[in-house]
Amino acid sequence: QVLVVGCGNSELSEQMYDVGMCEDIINIDVSDAVIRQMRERSAGTRPKMSYLLMDMLQMDFPDAHFQVVLDKGTLDALLTDEEEATLAKVDQMFAEISRVLQVGGRYLCVSLAQGHVLKKAVEYFSQEGWVVRVHQVASSGDKQQFVLPVFVYVMTKFRKIPGSAAQILEICPEEQDRPVRVESTERLVAAVKDRQHYALLCSQISKIPCREQVSLDLCDKESGKPRYTLHVVDSPSVKPSRDNHFAIFIIPQGRETEWLFGTEEGRRQLVASAGFGRLVTVALHREQHYDSMASIQAELSGKVMELAPPGLPARQQVPFLSVGGDIGVRAVRHCDSSPLSGEFVVEDVKGDGTCYFRRLIFLRNRNVVQSEARLLAPTPLPGQKKRRKDKKKPSPIEPPGAIDKSYLCCEHHKAMVAGLCLLGGPDALPGELAVLVVGLGGGSLPLFVHDYFSQARVAVVEIDPSMLEVATRWFGFSQGDRMQVHVSDGLDYVAKLAAEAPAQYDAIMFDVDSKDLTVGMSCPPPAFVEKPFLQKVKTILKPEGVFVLNLVCRDARLKESVLATLRDVFPLLYARRIQGEVNEILFCQPGPAG
Q1: Mind listing the pLDDT tens digit for each residue in 140-189?
Q2: Which family does it belong to (predicted)?
Q3: What's the gap between Cα 543 and its chain centre?
Q4: Which residue, among 486, 447, 445, 482, has the nearest Cα to 465 in the 3D structure?
Q5: 402: closest CA among 358, 455, 353?
């Protein structure tokens, strides 16, 4: 037996009856005109279905009379606000539904799932000990009546167990066969809101071009963690034709940090060079496993079509593009966390070509490579035979060779080392070069200075002891007579030197990141470019020395302030911009070089 509350003039009951889903249906409504109209429509054709004039807040049915109570939009119509009187009516509606429903029966509520409506329904029935599941049953799109998706709340009545606080809350997205358990009402409401936002986004970008790049995460069904990060980029310079409306670009694993794929300007250049009106770039996440390009295409093909541009011809084949035709190679070698740097990973990736690189990534800023080193190709031992072709194929990444210490991967590191020429030509360099590096990372910068300048004595200051361990274990870093690491706050270390041992360094290099992501300057921390501290830096620098600073600042006003402060302390200041990056290398000297 099915009870339809607030039936109105909806055809739902009639359609359920006509297709044979169920016939014993009682429909109630408070409108006498509606009930007479619906009785007339079903007279003689649906003998087992009835329409009754009745208020759902005070029903005449006996307790536990129905197996199903069906509500199509009635709760949405009643709960238009959160005034006390409205909420009292909703509580009465729910109490009456609970009374007339049998144990094991279900209350099915078709709804657009506004936040306050969903929250009220879920909280009420979960506190009564019912099992609560929310199904997404229809997406937005050309075939749908609404821009927002449609949901059905399925509330299954259980006997309330005294003293039990256990709640069973589930969501069943449209594209999944089985529900996903969530831990709280807040998480369930948030999951529904995500899908509503996505539907609004799809509706908007299907009608008009994107003025700004749109970013979204597609999450793994099981874990709920991001599996793909998509950017939707439109090119106003491309005139769409039948064959160049829309394409999908799969970024090979490990290359999502490159300028072309990891920045807005790079992606604009990518879509223009690809020659498509709209390009969706797809970045793959390191925590996820991917079998092949074909499996990724199969997984994404339905979802990316929801992001298609306006005017895409029907049944248009949408090409999947990539670099080199494969999904790239990424092998996570080490995962850890520290109180200072947070979670981080060390991973090996295949670059553009045959080279492999090792990277240090701080997961709080996962699209920024903190340190990078090139790996030497493994060399066979003397007498070692080559692998026969009929043997098992090697894994995508062979056991890596040693770190190539002679190669600087980072362009800003190359510029920083080049700044040493301000000390003079090769013959003019002091016989023993004293260098202070603040910020170790993977150790590539101090290692290169140490190895390239045979007379250099390098002191490194690093605040996080975990980074010294990472550099030593994974990036070939080692200490010796000419290389010493001091685990200390760079601010304290420089202040102490300024008080005890002034004018002792030929070169001072700052390559230290800021842990505070709310500031528009990610390198260095603001305290490192305050005037009193810069004066201490000047104190420990020899008169003819050079202070080299890696500046990463997106805030134009803050950047001007930093440059003005530097000029106050160092009369000579040179700037070297790194093409395609935000980094700018500043070379500062106390006075004219000799």
Answers
A1: 544 555 678 899 999 999 988 776 667 899 998 876 778 888 889 999 99
A2: Belongs to the methyltransferase superfamily.
A3: 47
A4: 486
A5: 358
Is the peptide bond prior to 524 cis by the omega test (within 30 degrees of 0)?
yes
The answer to whether 234 and 210 have CB atoms below 8 angstroms apart is yes
Structure tokens at 13: 């009951």
520 belongs to a structural domain:
yes
Q: Give the CATH number, domain containing residue 182.
A: 3.40.50.150
Q: Clarify whether residues 433 and 582 are in a common domain.
A: yes
Phi, psi of 419 (to 5 degrees): -60, -20
What crossing angle do the helices spanning 185-205 and 115-127 adopt, rounded to 10°?
Answer: 150
* HEC readout, 17-77: HHCCCCCCEEEEECCHHHHHHHHHHHCCCCCCCEEEECCCCCCCCCCCCEEEEEEECHHHH
pTM: predicted TM-score of the whole model, two decimal places? 0.69
Looking at the fold, whether 433 and 565 belong to one and the same domain comes out as yes
Reported residue count of the chain is 594
3-state secondary structure of 234: strand
Residue in this structure with the two tokens 């040693």, named with its chain if needed: 402
pLDDT digits (tens, 9 = 90+) for 48-68: 999 999 999 999 999 999 999
